[in-house]
Amino acid sequence: MVVTVIEQNGIIRVAAVHTETPVSTGPNKKSDEIANTYSAGSLEITKTVTGNMGDKTKYFDVTVTLTGETGKTYAESYGVTGGSHADNPETIKIGVPTMFKIKHGDTITIDNLPYGVTYTVEEADYTGTNGGYDAAAYTFSDDAQKIDSESDTVTITNNKGAEIDTGVTLDAAPYFLLLAVAAVGMFLLLSKKRFARD
Fold it and tell me: Which uninterrupted H or E stretch holds 171?
């Protein structure tokens, strides 16, 4: 953009404003329009719970942090939709870690994120005495975790399984066989004594 400024009687005035195309496009460099492009995408975070002991009604704490590019200016905040927990934030700010509660089947979506914004998604620890779940498994549609397409997705999977006691197992089979042989032996011994008395 070229701004032509003139001075008249000690007063600065703007005489003209126009844009120019690169010199390589031809001798007439002036242009009558400015092309501004805003590219933005969304970030979707989905929770999945698996395993025969997994609680599909439980809410898991997930912290999302957005990071902008150096030197760029961003909106005050970006809208968040989805999820079923009533206390989830409705907005998120660049550079401010924000915690959401999501359960099995929930998806939260952060909309209108400018290209170039990176993100981290981290769930609280639910392993061991904190719940007995396996370590959370993350599936990112973009390994770089950077907004550069219409939609980025993250799936967090929590698995909790346990062996169910069904009674007799193959590990105990030899002991049951030994008891059966002993019982047959006792029966034969008692039968033989009774036969000898008769």
Answer: none
More confident residue, 18 or 86: 86
Using only the alpha carbons of the chain, give its radius of gyration: 35
C-alpha dihedral, 186 to 189 to 190 to 196, nearest 10°: 180
The alpha-helical segments, DSSP class H, found in the chain are 173-197
Question: How far from 81 is each of 78, 89, 110, 127, 180, CA to CA, in Å?
Answer: 10, 9, 7, 28, 65
In 3D, which of 138, 133, 135, 134 has the Cα closest to residue 155? 138
- pLDDT tens digit string along 50-69? 999 999 999 999 999 999 99
Residue pair 132/77 in contact (Cβ under 8 Å)? The answer is no
